[in-house]
């Protein structure tokens, strides 16, 4: 299979590229930067989609970029980097004389309203209630293919929780303070912490890229990209401290996180959702890291 991956140069994209290449597939990264093995977004627009069997979009300005203040220009970039790139790929698929059999976009679980009790599956109804859920709505909407390709191309959205891995995402920023014994629970620690190991997210994308039934379902299929074991922030904090053999005695109060990150962004860490990967498991996906202990041991030990 040949598969162009928008944002394939990033944290999840590097893992996905490794996995697909190990399975004997070929990958081209779609990037803002030209380079060997890459095409740029401008080239995609001018030359169209190269003949391929699958296409993925992972592009997006990092929501946890510690170098960016939570302001209007950052929010605009969070939206445009995801929506414009997803739209470009969807349009290129629709215009292709031989569209790929599978089209996969990774969005986020921020569409589900944070709650200590509610449980959300892929079938749960939701309407946007804050800026991040509005982002998910527009992002997933921009991935929808026009009618002329829905009978040839399977459309998949994977709603990922916090992606855990050594080379990027939240762990990259957390490991140093935890190593120094400065890690602690965020707020009350009771908030759910939906997460997935990066290797499982890459595996789930590869699973979604497999050829569909003939003809594919005409509607967008959603999979929750989270581990099946539910954890709270307190459980995550204690387990990371245990695996690292470091104390985790310094709780971080909500006002500190809200001041540092902006409350609209801090919500991702200070609140959370119990997300159940119902359809993911029903589809037969086998997790390598279904529980926190195995995931964190792999990350810290690697
Ligand atoms: P990264 O932060 O690693 O970024 C992926 C790629 O996006 C980058 O390599 C870059 O590619 C491109 N990119 C970055 N900023 C911009 C911008 N301003 N405009 C256009 N392109 C940009 O992402 P991850 O690999 O961590 O995540 C992949 C996708 O999954 C993202 O859309 C993310 O929102 C989503 N997701 C990630 C989670 C996580 O915990 N990591 C959780 C839930 C969802 P290049 O420089 O080559 O153009």
UniProtKB/TrEMBL annotation:
<dbReference type="InterPro" id="IPR013549">
    <property type="entry name" value="DUF1731"/>
</dbReference>
<feature type="domain" description="DUF1731">
    <location>
        <begin position="252"/>
        <end position="299"/>
    </location>
</feature>
<dbReference type="InterPro" id="IPR010099">
    <property type="entry name" value="SDR39U1"/>
</dbReference>
<dbReference type="InterPro" id="IPR036291">
    <property type="entry name" value="NAD(P)-bd_dom_sf"/>
</dbReference>
<dbReference type="InterPro" id="IPR001509">
    <property type="entry name" value="Epimerase_deHydtase"/>
</dbReference>
<dbReference type="Pfam" id="PF01370">
    <property type="entry name" value="Epimerase"/>
</dbReference>
<dbReference type="Pfam" id="PF08338">
    <property type="entry name" value="DUF1731"/>
</dbReference>
<protein>
    <submittedName>
        <fullName>Epimerase family protein SDR39U1</fullName>
    </submittedName>
</protein>
<feature type="domain" description="NAD-dependent epimerase/dehydratase">
    <location>
        <begin position="5"/>
        <end position="217"/>
    </location>
</feature>
């Amino acid at each position: 299979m040949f598969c162009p991956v928008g944002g394939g140069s990033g944290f999840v994209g590097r893992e996905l590229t490794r996995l697909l290449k190990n399975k004997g597939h070929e990958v081209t990264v779609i990037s803002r930067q030209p380079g060997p093995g890459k095409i740029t977004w401008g080239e995609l627009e001018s030359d169209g989609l190269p003949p391929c069997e699958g296409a993925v979009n992972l592009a997006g300005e990092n929501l946890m970029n510690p170098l960016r203040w939570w302001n209007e220009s950052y929010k605009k970039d969070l939206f445009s980097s995801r929506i414009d790139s997803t739209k470009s790929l969807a349009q290129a698929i629709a215009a292709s004389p031989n569209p790929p059999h599978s089209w996969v976009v990774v969005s986020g679980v921020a569409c589900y309203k944070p709650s200590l009790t509610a449980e959300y599956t892929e079938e749960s109804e939701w309407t946007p209630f804050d800026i991040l859920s509005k982002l998910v709505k527009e992002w997933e909407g921009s991935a929808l293919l026009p009618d002329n390709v829905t009978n040839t191309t399977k459309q998949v959205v994977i709603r990922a929780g916090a992606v855990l891995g050594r080379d990027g995402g939240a762990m990259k920023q957390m490991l140093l303070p935890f190593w120094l014994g400065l890690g602690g629970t965020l707020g009350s620690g009771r908030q759910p912490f939906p997460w997935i190991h990066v290797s499982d997210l890459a595996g789930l994308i590869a699973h979604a890229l497999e050829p569909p039934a003939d003809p594919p379902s005409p509607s967008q299929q959603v999979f929750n990209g989270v581990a099946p074991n539910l954890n709270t922030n307190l459980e995550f904090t204690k387990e990371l401290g245990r695996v690292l053999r470091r104390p985790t005695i310094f709780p971080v109060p909500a006002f500190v996180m809200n001041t540092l990150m902006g409350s609209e962004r801090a919500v991702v860490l200070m609140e959370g959702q119990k997300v159940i990967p119902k359809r993911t498991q029903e589809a037969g996906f086998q997790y390598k890291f279904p529980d926190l202990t195995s995931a964190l041991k792999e990350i810290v030990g690697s």
